[in-house]
Write a structure and sequence with these properties.
13% strand; 7 strands; 7-stranded parallel beta sheet; globular; TIM Barrel
Length: 259
Amino acid sequence: MRDFTIDKYRCLLEQLLASGYRITTVSDFVLHGADKKTAVLRHDVDLLPMNSLTTARLEHTLGISATYYFRIVEQSNNPQVIRQIAALGHEIGYHYEDLTTAQGDIPRAYESFCGNLEYFRQFYPVNTICMHGSPRSRFDSRDLWRKYDYHELGIVAEPYLDLDFSRLFYLTDTGRCWDGYKVSVRDKIPKYQDLWTAAGLTYHSTDDIIEAIGSGALPSLLMLTTHPQRWTNDSRLWWKEAVSQNIKNLVKRILVLCR
């Protein structure tokens, strides 16, 4: 079975459930804490929002609630999809990149952020946000919070800034693999990645993760981040994404080396 298909994603979720993990949203984890074994399930909707609706429906059939972070741009922001995902019991959050779109102008970026936050709150009572990496931009939108405090806007968490990764293991499919931190510009946890690597907690394929879950090798507390644009059973779209991501990885590797 090919990796990064909906069928493979189902196998991953079913293995987590069979191994006793409670799968939950970012907001629920922050507000209510963790069980002995907890997997926080986060999705960054960068492109192809219909793919996110597919994963959301699958999760719903398995009794799972996840967090979906939508960008404001038209490639992500599909009101009908957002409403349907929220109706399935999933959390909706804002995948912000306002410092990038404002070209580093911090007051203008904050004004943009506030307006976009209110836009998404018409679909869901958004109380968590997450930075979009914008790897080709020299601006990191998290720097907006050096001047402003998102907690004053009713936000309880920004995963990169509020979660304790000394106890929460992080896995992301950035780069269309699970060890893409090597070429990632911002979707990584640098402070802890070396410790995880030294402990042997590195996985390349989804099958590697499924095997680790089944053997009990995966930590009991973890966050899984996926980009649903990558996950499809459609062969044509699967190959298109595979080729596109290989090109992106080459560009990101150059960007990482140049920083």
